[in-house]
């Protein structure tokens, strides 16, 4: 099946079959030729074709019937109609039924080859689009962005191999999820997946954690213990934060990877296991090599299949997909009724830079659900972000500026805000001194108006977070009621 040509030629005139086949062959395309509708249907049943050159006038049936069958069964094949009875009606009917193109006899070799080439490209693009549609979730991952499609394809390609995989990416991007996906999509999926965080274990105990120890090997070794390497035999060993590993242990790890053999701490018996190693770090491994903190030979031994996980801010529409998934899951877990986000909350979630990536988003959604009630999670329920990771830090690419929600109160004393407010009062011909909240309100509303109602853009220019504006709007309503 894999060696079958991608083009099926359906034509009942032997001389034309010979001509079309020679046209195709000269351009590097092999084809299968049949001379009846029945044979064509039999070939299509077997699958594997991407383009069919279909004559409408066949001895046993009308070619339109074959076209209709292709569309009804949703076969992944581009149909190019060939006929000597060209007419507007035939062309329209063929296109309505899903034909990719229409060739009128006689046609030149160039016309045929261009049509076939375009049809093949069309099918390739269609397959890519379908792949994107299908991959909204992939093992533990959520997201259909182009950035993640590349990750999914790399995992698919690497899964069957035993080659080591080196995963890089910022904290919270899902490196362990990636390692687990590699394991679950591999032939080792029915064997153990053993994760080990090299940065969370004291260096004096790290060797024992990986290779195990025998009784009496060191103080506190009251019995024999298998390490992660033995526990992962037949499966996958995931070494997270690999760049935190002590240099002396890096040497032993290199020897273990090369030979598959090791000694338990305190033992002279050589043991052998069959494992696949996947490692990860949130550092730049090459910089660690250059700084002398990571062995160069170990780096190249591990860096066989590199996977770099993009930060959440580079994943476009994935942010809201992930947030919605967390909302549904945590609402169910906490016994809450939340089912959706308000429009303002959606805008804030999409516009925030998420420096803590998926882990931060996860914590924020859970926090908001636990502390609030309702069916719609509103922007007013998101100030819990302000206390997350010390402050609601927003890394914006505004000339390298970094802003925070906790610092947004400084807007009330911000010289630019006061200047805008003063300009407003002067143009109104009054020397009235307005309450500070009104000064702030006028400044913000003026900025929103200048940005054609775009709150996110106005917030960016004011150097504050969009959630601050939405929250202040609620405060303004209360203050307006009190002063009226």
TrEMBL record:
Keywords: Activator, ATP-binding, DNA-binding, Nucleotide-binding, Phosphoprotein, Transcription, Transcription regulation, Two-component regulatory system. CDD domains: AAA (cd00009), REC_NtrC1-like (cd17572). Residues 6-120 form the Response regulatory domain. The modification 4-aspartylphosphate is found at residue 55. Pfam families: AAA_lid_14, HTH_8, Response_reg, Sigma54_activat. The keyword ATP-binding applies. GO terms for molecular function: ATP binding; sequence-specific DNA binding. GO terms for biological process: phosphorelay signal transduction system; regulation of DNA-templated transcription. Residues 141-370 form the Sigma-54 factor interaction domain. Signal peptide: none annotated. InterPro entries: AAA+_ATPase (IPR003593), AAA_lid_NorR (IPR058031), CheY-like_superfamily (IPR011006), Homeodomain-like_sf (IPR009057), HTH_Fis (IPR002197), P-loop_NTPase (IPR027417), Sig_transdc_resp-reg_receiver (IPR001789), Sigma_54_int (IPR002078). The keyword Transcription regulation applies. It comes from the Bacteria. This is ATPase AAA. It comes from Kiloniella litopenaei.
């Amino acid at each position: 099946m894999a060696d079958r040509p991608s083009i099926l030629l359906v034509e009942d005139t032997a001389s034309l079959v010979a001509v079309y086949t020679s046209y195709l062959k000269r351009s590097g395309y092999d084809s299968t030729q049949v001379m009846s509708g029945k044979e064509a249907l039999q070939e299509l049943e077997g699958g594997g074709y991407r383009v069919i050159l279909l004559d409408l006038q066949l001895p046993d049936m009308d070619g339109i019937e074959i076209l209709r069958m292709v569309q009804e069964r949703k076969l992944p094949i581009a149909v190019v109609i060939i006929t000597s009875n060209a007419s507007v009606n035939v062309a329209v009917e063929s296109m309505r039924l899903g034909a990719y193109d229409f060739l009128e006899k006689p046609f030149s070799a160039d016309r045929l080859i261009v049509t076939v080439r375009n049809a093949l490209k069309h099918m390739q693009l269609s397959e890519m689009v379908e792949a994107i549609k299908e991959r909204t979730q992939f093992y533990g991952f959520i997201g259909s962005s182009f950035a993640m499609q590349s990750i999914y394809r790399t995992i698919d390609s690497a899964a069957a191999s035993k080659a080591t995989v080196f995963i890089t990416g910022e904290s919270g991007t899902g490196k362990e999820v990636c390692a687990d996906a590699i394991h679950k999509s591999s032939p080792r999926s029915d064997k153990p997946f053993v994760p080990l965080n090299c940065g969370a274990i004291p260096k004096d105990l790290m060797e024992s954690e990986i290779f195990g120890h025998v009784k009496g090997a060191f103080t506190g070794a009251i019995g024999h213990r298998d390490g992660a390497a033995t526990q992962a035999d037949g499966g996958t060993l995931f070494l997270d934060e690999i760049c935190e590993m002590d240099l002396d242990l890096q040497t032993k790890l290199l020897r273990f990877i090369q030979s598959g053999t090791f000694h338990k701490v305190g033992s002279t018996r050589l043991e052998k296991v069959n494992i696949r190693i996947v490692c990860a770090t949130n550092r730049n491994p090459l910089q660690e090599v250059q700084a002398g903190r990571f062995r160069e030979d170990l780096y190249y031994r591990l860096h066989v299949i590199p996977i770099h996980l993009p930060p959440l801010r580079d994943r476009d529409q994935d942010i809201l997909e992930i947030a919605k998934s967390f909302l549904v899951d945590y609402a169910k877990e906490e016994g809450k009724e939340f089912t959706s986000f308000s429009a303002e909350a959606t805008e804030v979630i999409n516009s925030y830079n998420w420096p803590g990536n998926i882990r931060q988003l996860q914590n924020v959604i859970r926090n908001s659900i636990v502390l609030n009630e309702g069916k719609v999670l509103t922007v007013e329920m998101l100030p819990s972000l302000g206390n997350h990771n010390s402050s609601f830090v927003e890394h914006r690419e505004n000339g390298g500026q970094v802003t925070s929600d906790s610092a947004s109160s400084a807007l009330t004393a911000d010289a630019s805000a006061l200047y805008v407010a003063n300009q407003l009062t002067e143009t109104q011909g009054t020397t009235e001194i307005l309450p500070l909240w009104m000064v702030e309100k006028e400044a913000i509303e003026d900025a929103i108006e200048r940005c054609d109602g775009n709150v996110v853009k106005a917030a960016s220019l004011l150097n504050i977070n969009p959630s601050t504006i939405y929250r202040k709007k609620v405060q303004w309503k209360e203050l307006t009621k009190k002063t009226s």
